[in-house]
Design goal:
Order of helices and strands: EHEEHEHEHEEEEHHH
Structural class: alpha/beta
CATH architecture: 3-Layer(aba) Sandwich
Oligomer: single chain
Strand order of the largest sheet: 2-1-3-4-9-8-7-5-6
CATH superfamily: Class I glutamine amidotransferase (GATase) domain
CATH class: Alpha Beta
CATH topology: Rossmann fold
Largest sheet: 9 strands, mixed
Strand content: 25-35%
């Protein structure tokens, strides 16, 4: 099997729990560290799918690598390869497929509930997951739904939490989190926490009962990742 290409945009926002899932399933991967100026492949000829992680930048920033990633997304989506995006990665997918990325009405940071959307696409992707799930969030922008995509997760702070189109899954939320990642982000991005609100938790609030929350989050992640990997697992 060719490897998955995993695009990391900042060191602290790596594949996290997704990496554990891929190791468990013995699925090969190649990480491309944009934060270390590693070159972006010119095509998708030697990969099985694409994964895009998060980052504090915007897809609307004039960064030289953004256009290259958008083109790879369009190539992979057109060929039906699995494409997965987390937060910034989900926004990259939206923009690549004709959507828009704009400011969300509020910053959404910490543990917040999401709910399943209605429709057959949500049923196919979410299976027997509960109607409401507490997931982790850290974003100030949001994506629109490209033509052909269907919403599968939503909430009140940010109506577009996840969409799917074929083998492409775009997430606004962070299901890749591990407990150490939550603690690290709370320290590194503490400037985002200066004005707590119903949508922005303090570091103390987001690390409370952390192990239990991470266990529940990773059960959701297991379901989503296995569903996304289904074309590769046979």
């Amino acid at each position: 099997m060719n490897p998955l290409y995993i695009f990391r945009h900042i060191e602290c926002e790596g594949p996290g729990y997704l990496g554990e899932v891929l190791s468990r399933l013995e699925i090969p991967r190649r990480q491309i560290a944009i934060d270390r100026n590693e070159p972006i492949p010119a095509n998708i000829d030697h990969c099985s799918g694409l994964v895009f992680m998060g980052g504090p930048m915007s897809v609307n920033d004039p960064l030289p690598w953004i256009g290259k990633e958008l083109e790879l997304i369009r190539m992979a989506h057109a060929q039906g390869l699995p494409v997965l995006g987390h937060c910034l990665g989900g926004q990259l997918i939206s923009k690549a497929l004709g959507g828009q990325v704009t400011a969300n009405p509020v910053k959404e940071i910490g543990w917040h509930d999401v709910r399943r959307s209605s429709g057959k696409t949500a049923e196919r992707w979410l299976g027997d997951l509960p109607a409401r799930m507490e997931l982790f969030h850290w974003h100030g922008e949001t994506f629109s739904l490209p033509a052909g995509a269907e919403l599968i997760l939503e909430n009140d702070h940010c109506p577009h939490q996840a969409f799917a189109d074929g083998n492409t899954l775009a997430l606004q939320c962070h299901v890749e989190m591990t407990a150490p990642m939550v603690v690290e982000w709370a320290a590194l991005y503490d400037d985002d926490l200066n004005t707590p609100s119903p949508a922005v938790q303090t570091a103390g609030a987001m690390t409370e009962n952390l192990d239990e929350r991470i266990d529940a989050l990773q059960r959701v992640a297991d379901h989503l990742y296995l569903r996304w990997l289904a074309p590769l697992l046979g």
